[in-house]
Amino acid sequence: MRFSVTSIPFAVLLMAAGLCRADTPLEVTLVSEVTSIQPGKPFYAGLHLRHGPAYHSYWKFPGIVGVPTSIQWKLPSGFEAGEIEWPEPEPVLMFKIKAQGFERDVLLPIKITPPADLKPGERVKLGGKASWMACARTCHPGFTEVMLELPVKREAPAIDDKWRVMFDQERARTARSNAAWTASAMESGQTVTLKLVPASPRARKLTAEQAAKIIFYTEDGWIDSDKPQSAQVNDDSSLTISLTRSDIYLGKEPPRVLAGIVQIPGGWLADAELRSMKIEPVLQR
Asked: Does one domain contain both 185 and 156?
């Protein structure tokens, strides 16, 4: 198998050259969860993405096509920005190609840490250049300068009611690991077999019809997002999920673990909501 760090970017450029137009059917806005900044106290901002009809943008790993949304910050001295804390993805189609992204309007939370020596009474501008690709039958790469301005106050900031619900929703959609299930993975040729075994009574018992709706999202591109996936329920209530290895991988050597998210409507737990579960089983070869 050939491992390349250039194949996918080159393919994306070819796709963009042939399919893209200058207009971008995506509105990107920088928003804040709070109405002011307290010196030295971290808070959350976020990129709010509003998609045009039938268009989608891409998750942190898009699959075999697409480019994830990103931001190149221009922050005042002493400010630090964390990585995007990605909510769970959705299955999307770039024409007929299956990928990983968002069709719904989505907010991408980012933790911002201000310096401790900010002076109450000041106003601070936070901004940067956001870039993305929005696709349907055609693709539209784009970028825009985004900015927000917040006052500095001595007291703890109030939550902005305009964005409170959406920040809470996106946090609830974040994939998490859970000890109610254990995962193992075996690779043979192009096939990767993922097995999920209930490890406690909290694990939701699934029917064959429910298991058929499971989706695996790759976090590093080792699994081909465009190939069919199948899941079966075993007699012991464990699950066997069949996946296909990608022909192109950006890493310099094969990964040690199967990094991804398994998602199912109704969730993985019998007593709580966990729609998207993060897994990292060691890949047995």
From this structure: no
- Report the C-alpha gap between 155 and 41 in whole angstroms: 10
Q: Of the residues 132, 147, 172, which one is the last residue of a structural domain?
A: 172
Assess if residue 2 is contained within a domain.
no
- CA 285 vs. chain centroid, Å, equals 28
User: What 8-state DSSP symbol labels residue 210?
Assistant: H
**Please, which residues have CB within 8 angstroms of residue 95's CB and are 6 or more apart in sequence?**
135, 136, 137
Percent of the chain scoring above 70 in pLDDT: 92
132 and 271 belong to one structural domain: no
**Total Cβ atoms within 10 A of residue 77:** 6
Q: What is the 3-state secondary structure (H, E, C) of 91-145?
A: EEEECCEEEEEECCCEEEEEEEECCCCCCCCCEEEEEEEEEEEEECCCEEEEEEE
Mean pLDDT score, 226-232: 97
For residue 156, give its domain range: 7-172
Which tens digit of pLDDT belongs to each residue from 166-214?
999 999 999 999 999 999 999 999 999 999 999 999 999 999 999 999 9
Separation of alpha carbons 226 and 213, rounded Å = 16
> pLDDT at position 11, please?
43
Grade residue 7 by pLDDT with cuts at 50, 70 and 90.
very low
CA 213 from centroid of its chain's CA atoms:
19
Mean pLDDT of 219-225: 97
* 160 residue type, one letter: D
Query: In terms of residues, how long is the chain?
Result: 285
CATH number at residue 227: 2.60.40
Whether the per-residue pLDDT at 224 is higher than 60: the answer is yes
- Written as six digits, the tokens of 55 are 């268009």
CB-CB contact of 47 with 146 (8 Å): yes
Please check whether residue 76 lies inside any domain of the structure.
yes
| Cβ burial, residue 37 (10 Å; 0-12/13-18/19+) | buried
